[in-house]
Design brief:
Blueprint: H1 10-39, H2 43-67, H3 75-106, H4 118-126, H5 135-180
Helix pairs in contact: 1-2, 1-5, 2-3, 3-5
GO molecular function, one term: inositol phosphoceramide synthase regulator activity
Keywords: Membrane, Transmembrane, Transmembrane helix
InterPro entries: Kei1 (IPR013862)
Length: about 190
């Protein structure tokens, strides 16, 4: 790649990519704070919160390094690798550990309301009354909602995957141009 979306230089694109990653990992800090202050959580949730907190620190250091980069800069390859590996690790976690946790804990879910904390339970009791449903009606309603939403959910997952892949390629391209000494020759570079 020689530019970010054909409009900005690579360094600006790398900074944007790292800022998005930083914002994404901040949620893990809030989750960890909530877990440590009594909200609880499963092993899968807490371990992902810890991972997000550590990744947040690594991404912040990477952002600092990109902002003060000097030519040539081989350590950026390592940071590009870290960005890619954090994406691969979170994806693997999402596809292997979380579904296993779901299967062990929530396999019997049939569309019924299920509180995972005291706060959720309080919200459920505060909701206006509604007609009671049989188990079959609840399952049918849950499946109807799923049928409406699964295409949109798949599109969101695909777009997020493609954007993370593009951001990883962007960081690798930036590191490669810095290593080769060709960054200043790119059309949009300062």
């Amino acid at each position: 790649l020689s530019s970010f979306l054909g409009v900005l230089d690579l360094k600006t694109g790398v900074i944007v990519a790292l800022l998005f990653a930083l914002l994404n990992k901040v949620a893990g800090v809030y989750g960890l704070i909530a877990a440590l202050t009594g909200a609880g959580g499963s092993f899968a949730q807490i371990s992902l919160y810890l991972y997000s907190t550590l990744a947040l620190v690594a991404i912040a250091l990477g952002l600092k390094a990109v902002k003060r980069v000097r030519l040539p800069s081989p350590p950026l390859y390592f940071r590009a690798f870290l960005f890619s590996s954090t994406h691969a690790l979170s994806t693997a976690w999402g596809h292997m550990v979380r579904p296993l946790s779901w299967w062990v804990q929530d396999a019997a879910w049939t569309g019924g309301a299920q509180a995972h904390s005291a706060a959720q339970e309080a919200m459920m009791h505060a909701a206006p009354p509604h007609e009671p449903m049989t188990d079959a009606q609840r399952v049918a309603a849950a499946m109807a909602i799923w049928e409406q939403e699964k295409g949109f959910a798949a599109a969101i997952i695909a777009v997020s995957w493609l954007s993370k892949l593009y951001f990883a390629l962007l960081i690798y391209s930036y590191a490669s141009h810095l290593r080769k000494g060709s960054y200043r020759a790119l059309p949009l570079s300062r």
